[in-house]
Amino acid sequence: AMEVPVQQRRARYKSPGGPPWRETYRRRCMERLRSSRAKLLDRYRQAGDGACGAAPGALLVQEVMEQEWQELRDRLPGLRGEQPMEQVLEDPDELAVLEEIQQELILQEQSVIEEYERSLRFDEECLNAMLDSLDATDRVICPVCRKNNLTVKAHLVCCQCGLYISTQDMTEGKLRSLLESTLTEHSQRCLHSPEFTVTSGMEEEASLLMSCPV
């Protein structure tokens, strides 16, 4: 007599929608993981320093799932008390749903890390191209857009991207030397690529500013 409800319950979990809490829990886990992007990348950088570049495992997934489980449990009385999710969800089909959500979150986490790695490689390639151009020719690639050659005159430095800086007695050789020494000094202390922007105050003339996101 007890088999019918159990079979009905399992049939409900195996339906396309899965158990009733599935979509809410999955959606909230994905949102929390996306909002924790900065935290994820910070952990990845820390793990990378000690792992020689080896691909890390799930850095935030378990934490995200546990935090969202606690909030879901508080809203749904059927999920009972203070027990962890593995004890509450004794049905194999319910646990399968958790594993499916976990794998989806791991894939999402890995895609964020891969995007970050691609961005780092792009920055490194652009920086190397700029350094190569400093060595190879008298022309200087714009450090802001990293695409166009700078126009360097005695009283100004400008670029098609909008960079326009007033100077005094500037030459391409002087500018190249300034950029090269600044980049070299930074690379001796930090492995990440710096960024260049044009900045100016209320009464100050525009200046070229190098900063590092790390």
Give the SSE layout.
Elements: H1 3-13, H2 22-35, H3 37-51, H4 61-75, H5 85-88, H6 92-136, E1 151-153, E2 156-158, E3 164-166, H7 172-187, E4 195-199, E5 207-211
Antiparallel strand pairs: 1-2, 2-3, 4-5
Helix pairs in contact: 2-4, 2-6, 3-6
Account of the protein in words:
The chain is mainly α. Among the domains are: 94-136; 151-211, no CATH class. Helix content is 56%, strand content 9%. The chain has seven helices and five strands, in the order ααααααβββαββ. Helix 2 (22-35) crosses helix 4 (61-75). The radius of gyration is 27 Å and the shape is elongated. The protein starts with a helix and ends with a strand. The model is unreliable at 1-15 and 50-55 (pLDDT under 50).
- Derived structural class: mainly alpha
In total, the number of strands is: 5
What's the total helix number? 7
* Amount of beta strand: 5-15%
**CA-based shape:** elongated
Give the low-pLDDT segments.
Answer: 1-15, 50-55
The main pleated sheet reads as:
3 strands, antiparallel
Compact overview of the structure:
InterPro entries: RIP, RPA_interact_C_dom, RPA_interact_central, RPA_interact_N_dom. The protein has seven helices and five strands.
Q: What descriptors fit this protein?
A:
7 helices, 56% helix, 214 residues
